[in-house]
Amino acid sequence: MKLHLSNLDVTKHVEIELGDITQFVGRPNTGKSLAMRAILREKGTVYLPYSRSFFTFQNLVLQLSKDFVTYDEKIYNLVKPLLRGQLKYLNDRLVYVEKDKVIPWEHVSTSVLEVMSFLLSVKEGNIVLYEEPEAHLHEELQLLMSIVLYALSPFNRIVISTHSQTIFYNIVHLSLLKPTKEELKDLFEDLKVNDYEALVDAVEKA
Fold first, then answer.
1. What is the 3-class SS of the chain, one letter each residue?
2. Which of 4, 132, 158, 174 could form a disulfide with 150 if both were Cys (CB 3.0 to 4.6 A apart)?
3. At 157, is the pLDDT very low, low, confident or very high (cuts 50, 70, 90)?
4. Do 35 and 10 meet the contact criterion of CB atoms below 8 Å apart?
């Protein structure tokens, strides 16, 4: 897929060819977000804008409190390492459980809501436009999210904008060096994360 963009803030004209995973990196106000929005007209596009504010998360909490909230099981298996707890259905409601205790959605951390926002938005086969995935994640979770985004790239076209060196360099590292299963398992063990098997398998196939 190619984009031909003109008069985009400081950019007079640019041609961008999107790969399986594309990163827009640059100073603020250089047109990264505008370039991403130019892709929105493509069918099957999911857009997670930077403006994932407190009020956005409030709306997410309300959505999660309703019955029959669903998600893509394949995507969930990949993001599991980012969650300390697990998702379960209780009386047709999706709940978040840590150490066998249900945590009300209004009491979970912002990082969990960030992961849930991603999980509920993305389905297999989507074009995913994700602005600043690092916004509500500490550095370890940024590292894990970058691995998830890379793992998704064979069956979802991924386009992100980021100011995070952790996300940028780790995606480049994964793309160029292709770590082995054993290396990935060692990393996840060092990070003390659980349920990483599906993510390891997906990275190996990417």
1. CEEEEEEECCEEEEEEECCCEEEECCCCCCCHHHHHHCCCCCCCEEEECCCCCHHHHHHHHHHHCCECCCCCHHHHHHHHHHCCCEEEEECCEEEEEECCEEECHHHCCHHHHHHHHHHHHCCCCCEEEEECCCCCCCHHHHHHHHHHHHHHCCCCEEEEECCCHHHHHHHHHHHHHCCCHHHHHHHHHHHCCCCCHHHHHHHHHC
2. 174
3. very high
4. no
- Please name the residues in contact with 51: beta carbons below 8 A apart, sequence gap of 6 or more: none
Tokens of 80: 């599991």
Q: Say what the pLDDT of residue 179 is.
A: 95
Give the rounded distance of the alpha carbon of 166 from its chain centre.
Answer: 14
The verdict on pTM exceeding 0.70 is yes
Phi, psi (degrees; rounded to nearest 5) at 107: -110, -5
In the structure encoding, which two tokens stand for residue 75, read together?
């995507």
In the chain, the amino acid numbered 177 is: L
As a whole number of angstroms, the distance between CA 108 and CA 105 comes to: 5
Asked if residues 167 and 25 have their Cβ atoms less than 8 Å apart, the reply is no
Partner residues linked to 161 by β-bridges: 24, 131
Q: Would you say the C-alpha torsion 29, 32, 139, 62 has a positive or negative sign?
A: positive
